[in-house]
Structures are given as structure tokens and as C-alpha cells.
Amino acid sequence: MASYSTSVLAHLFGIIALILMLVWLLHYQGGIEYDSDNSSRVFNVHPFLMFFGFIFLVGQAIMSYHTVPGTHETKKTVHMTLHFIAIVLGIVGICAVFKFHDMVYLVDVYSLHSWIGLGTFCLFGLQWLFGLTFMFQGTRQSRTAMAPWHIAGGRALFFMAICAALTGLMERTAMLRLLPHQRESHLINFTGLAILLFGVFVDMTVGLAHTYT
Amino acid sequence: MASYSTSVLAHLFGIIALILMLVWLLHYQGGIEYDSDNSSRVFNVHPFLMFFGFIFLVGQAIMSYHTVPGTHETKKTVHMTLHFIAIVLGIVGICAVFKFHDMVYLVDVYSLHSWIGLGTFCLFGLQWLFGLTFMFQGTRQSRTAMAPWHIAGGRALFFMAICAALTGLMERTAMLRLLPHQRESHLINFTGLAILLFGVFVDMTVGLAHTYT
């Protein structure tokens, strides 16, 4: 029950973050479009896909063991499939920011955000491959032995992805040279808080389920 | 054993982060001093105390149940005392940044970093008070019932404190107008990665201990 109520809160803050981000990108930042001549519209693909495509779906995948009805196999398939979709959308999101850098002649991969983000994404790919290997190749004993590490590793990577999102919002705020207490910077801050609380409640859903069982 | 090895990694990355931060603040940023006419030296008290005084000590307090030898009562006293020292040092660290803002006529509490940081710190104070009340007033049953929530809440707040640290490093990098791929910005990035890995391994130490027992 405890993990059910935290998963409801996770959904609430995830959807709030999505709405706030869409208001920011569509109303203040001119829209989202990969094939545009407007560099800002190309950039906007990055925060949208990294949050809604990657972090939000990964959060759903993590919670699937507690939210999806059906057998353990069903939950596992949902968990694996959502992660696969998230990784594909994440790759497109990362391509978008490199395309933006090319358009405005900016250097790549110099900020703390980019280091955390790319590092986390690569480790995520590895974690997914490990998980897939165990799903099809591992024995029941080896799966049981690996489970605590898979869970701890997955939670750590999700935590790192949230850090990447928040440092990314900080970087964009600095790049846009927004003034303190401007309406748009408040909107970005509230988006960041909602993303953080989404992360907290997804993590709590897993944590409480494990402490109570 | 699993939680022992992750606590060793937590110490390793915690100490690396501390060394890198000291090199940054002492060598590149002119030193750390609360009562200085140099605003930069006053500012430097903030990252130093928020990391070494607050986050590092809170991490030690969290791990104390798995690293401190002795009875459960001893571990609990260490856990509570370290948190108390961390909160006191954190208050001084927060005062330092407000003093810095006054010195350079900057507005307060407008950035995502400040919102996450102050929000987390206030909730931390509440969590400590709740913990203290239960330590002295609660019955054995009520303590057992509250434990999963205390652990989940504490882990969430620690996660939020790491996010505050990383967004803080991003804010300072932007404020100092460091160029991409400058030596100092690389140093700050490595400090950030070490703080992130400290957070990850402290959290894993708790997580693995709970999944294995």
C-alpha cells in the first residue's frame, strides 16, 4: 500500500513536470522540431525527449513491477520494453543537442551536465544489455543472486539521470541569460522541482516495496 | 559484505571530492574565509561547508549503521550526533552565501539550485526533529512501524542534497563565466562527478544492506 501511494505521487509529479516543460518549450521557447532552421526549436527536442522520452518512461519501467497487473513475466516484459523505447528516444534526444551545437558553432561535451548525462546514458545501455542477457540466459539461481545488484544499479542510474536533467535546466537558464525572478526562470525552476519529486517518488516506490516485503 | 564494499567506495569518492574541491577553492578561488573583505573568499565558505560540513557528514551518518562497530544504541547515537553537527555546519554554510549576496548586491533565492537547496535543508531539519522525537518518545512498535518511512525519507533528502550540490556547481561555473574546456571548469566537473558517486555509493550501501537482509 505504501508503495502504491508513492507511485500515485510519482505519476502526479511526472505529469506536472511534463505540462510545465511543454508550456516552457512551446510558449516561451518557440516549439519543438528536429528538422528546423531555427536552432532553438532543434534544441528543444533535447529537454523534451530526455525527460518525457527517457526519464519519464524509465520511471514507468522501474515502477512497472508495482503498477502493472498480471504475472511476473508480464511485468518483466513491460519493464524491458519501456526501457528499450526510452533508450531509443534518448538517443534521438542526444542527437538533437549535437545538431544544435553544430548549428550555433558551440563546443560539445564540456559541462558537468554533459559529463553526467552522457556517462549515465552509456552505463544505462550497459545495464539494459546485462538485464537482457540475464533475462534470456541466466539460471534461476544466478538471476536471484544478481537481482539486488540490478536493482541497486538501476536506482543509482535513475538518480544520476535526474541529476543530469536538473544540471541541464541550470545550463539552459544560464545560456538563455534569464534574469532572476523572471517569469520564465520561475517556470523552469518549478519544472525542475517537479522532475526532482518525480525521481524521489519513483525511488521511494521501489524502496518502500523492498523494506515492507 | 556487499554494503561493506560500497561503503569503501563511498569513502573513496567522498575524499576525492573533498580534495578536488579544496584544490579548486584554495588554488583557483583564493581561499576560504567567513570574515573577509574579499567576497569570493566569503562565498567559498558555502560550497566547502555544504559539501564537507553537510553532505559528507550526512553520508557518514547514513552509513553509520553499517560502518560503526558496537551496539545498535551506539550506531544510533553516532547517526543522530553526526546529523546534528551537519545541520549546524550547514546553517553556517547557508549564512555565508547570504552574506556574499549582500556584499555583491545580488538577489537571493531565485535559482533552481537555491530552491532545491533551501527546500531540502528545511525538510532535513524536520526529518531530524521527527527522528529525535521517536528516539526518545516512541514505543518499540511505533519505531518499527516508522523505520521504513524514516529510511525512505532520509534517502530521498540525501538524494535531493546531492542534486543541490550539482546544480550549485553549475551555477558557480556560469557565474564565474568559465570557458568550455578551461582547466578550472574540468576541475569543477570532476568534483561534481566525485560528489555524485559519493551519493550513489552511500545510497547503495543502505539499499544493498536492506535487500540482502
UniProtKB/TrEMBL annotation, chains A, B:
Q: In terms of domain of life, where is this protein from? A: Eukaryota
Q: Which cofactor does this sequence's record say it needs?
A: heme b
Q: Where in the cell is it found?
A: Membrane
Instruction: Write out the transmembrane intervals.
Output: 7-28, 48-68, 80-100, 112-135, 147-167, 187-209
Q: Could you confirm whether the keyword ATP-binding appears in this record? A: no
Alphabetical keyword list: Electron transport, Heme, Iron, Membrane, Metal-binding, Transmembrane, Transmembrane helix, Transport
Q: How does it sit in the membrane?
A: Multi-pass membrane protein
Q: Does the keyword Transcription apply?
A: no
Q: Could you tell me one molecular function GO term of this UniProt entry?
A: oxidoreductase activity
Q: Which GO terms describe its cellular component?
A: membrane
Gene3D superfamilies in alphabetical order: 1.20.120.1770
Q: Which residues form the Cytochrome b561 domain?
A: 9-207
Q: What is this protein called?
A: Cytochrome b561 domain-containing protein
